[in-house]
Design a protein that fits this description.
By secondary structure, this protein is mainly beta. The protein has helices at 2-5, 38-41, 124-131, 151-157; strands spanning 22-23, 31-36, 47-53, 58-64, 68-75, 78-82, 85-89, 94-97, 103-107, 113-120, 133-134, 160-162. The chain has a seven-stranded antiparallel beta sheet. The protein has a five-stranded antiparallel beta sheet with strand order 7-6-9-4-12, covered by helices on one side. The longest helix is centred in the last third of the chain and has 8 residues, at 124-131. The relative contact order is 0.24.
Length: 164
């Protein structure tokens, strides 16, 4: 219960556009918006945010070493591949991804695919600024850009296992 004590009596509401946002490199070509995380919630148990994947983009196959991830699709259409099994993604699709579960998200639609993610323990919120570029809401997307060459080291530091 120690994780809860720091947040006792603390409430927080984050409106659209108030959270940090980061353009993401290829192959996602969208943006990630960590919204609630230990630094602003005072709760060390989880972090949450939104992942927007551009049409034709994808979140490459990966797993999280010691983290549980929950994902909920609420805009767009595509596929999620979990341990090699493909499933349709549409608004309302929910995914539970335990530690070590390989997963990939593909946007096969003509509009942005938007996912809500929740990770416990936290850490994913530190990945997005490490590999992306700061984004201001409403600004046009930059030209696609490459992942940093040290992305595998970044992932290992955060407890993620890179597979590509």
């Amino acid at each position: 219960m120690r994780d809860v004590e720091g947040a006792r009596g603390h409430g927080l509401v984050v409106q659209p556009g108030e959270a940090p946002s980061y353009w993401q490199p290829m192959p996602a070509n969208g943006h990630a918006d960590p919204v609630l995380y230990p630094a602003n919630t005072r709760f060390a148990g989880l972090s949450t945010g939104f992942q927007t994947i551009a049409p034709g983009g994808r979140i490459r196959s990966h797993s999280h070493g010691d983290q549980v991830e929950l994902q909920i699709c609420f805009l767009g259409r595509g596929r999620v591949v979990v341990d090699g099994v493909s499933h349709p993604l549409e608004p309302g699709t929910a995914c539970f991804l335990g530690p070590g579960v390989q997963h990939e998200i593909l946007n096969e639609g003509a509009e942005a695919l938007v996912m809500l993610w929740v990770v416990s323990p936290p850490g994913l919120e530190r990945f997005f600024p490490a590999v992306g570029r700061p984004r201001q809401p409403g600004e046009p997307a930059p030209a696609p850009f490459a992942r940093p060459p040290d992305v595998v080291d970044v992932e290992r530091t955060l407890g993620m296992n890179d597979t590509r």
